[in-house]
Design a protein that fits this description.
alpha/beta; 43% helix; 8-stranded mixed β-sheet; two-stranded antiparallel sheet; single chain
């Protein structure tokens, strides 16, 4: 059940949300009419939906490792794969939106924070099979399950980095020349979200697209979203309620949009 905060935030979002009517930014008009709004069907969706159902129906369990609010390792515990999939996997509508955004970005390098079982990773990776995908996951057993799912799709271009993201992200980024598409879906708290964004933004280009998950999940995440939108490196932002997208394009008037999807 959604929290009272989420319900209140959604009502505020509905009051602000707009469609393509009156959009004066050529790129955002293109993004809304060709990527955000259309419910396109792709051949990959059948296999991705089948994997989703397989995970939701899985009788398997794994030893789940979580990290606390301060990043410290918590006690491991058995969790059902079906429960992880039900909690962590994006709903089909949002997962397919990730696919369309990845297709729009045509990114050479994709970075994802928060692999889980790999369903979102695959939605990001499949539109451009030759993209280099680097995804970060804290739990070794969950990462192992994700790798098995990648193998089912014969995705050899996905690298999984396992361990506490607070410790693994910065060293890994030193090996990456640029980030064309980033998806932040790991620690949904204000300080880590901003810190991760700043680390990733050092590798941005003018064409980069950064997607942030659950921007209205809590007051802290809303503060993080506001600070990221206000960052002088960010030129355009799109609030989709469940996700936020930022761009770093030069030569455009800084604008923030709230889109109804």
């Amino acid at each position: 059940m959604p929290s009272l905060h989420t319900v209140a935030a959604y009502l505020k979002y509905l009051l602000k949300a707009q469609n393509a009517h009156g959009l004066h930014s050529p790129y955002m008009f293109h993004l809304y009419t060709n990527v955000l709004s259309p419910d396109k069907t792709y051949a990959d969706f059948e296999a991705l939906d089948a994997l989703r159902e397989e995970l939701l129906d899985s009788p398997d369990s794994l030893l789940f490792t979580d990290y606390g609010a301060g990043g410290e390792k918590q006690a491991q515990r058995k969790r059902k794969v079906s429960d992880i999939a039900a909690l962590a996997a994006k709903p089909p509508q949002l997962a397919r939106l990730l696919y369309r955004l990845a297709e729009e970005a045509q990114a050479g390098t994709i970075v994802e924070l928060g692999t889980s079982l790999g369903l979102s990773t695959l939605h990001l990776a499949l539109p451009k099979p030759d993209a280099a995908v680097i995804t970060f996951e804290g739990c070794p057993e969950t990462a192992k399950a994700a790798k098995a799912n990648f193998a089912k799709f014969k995705r050899n271009n996905i690298q999984v980095i396992t361990g506490n993201i607070d410790e693994t992200l910065a060293p890994a980024l030193k090996q990456i020349q640029q980030i064309d598409l980033a998806f932040l879906d790991a620690n949904h708290r204000e300080e880590p979200t901003i810190r991760y964004f700043n680390l990733l933004a050092e590798k941005r280009t003018e064409q980069s697209m950064f997607i942030l998950d659950d921007i209205h999940w809590s007051p802290g995440m809303e503060r993080a979203w506001e600070k990221i939108k206000a960052d002088p490196r960010v030129s355009l932002s799109a609030d989709l309620f469940w996700m936020g997208i930022v761009f770093f394009r030069s030569g455009v008037v800084k604008q923030d949009f709230v889109f109804k999807i």
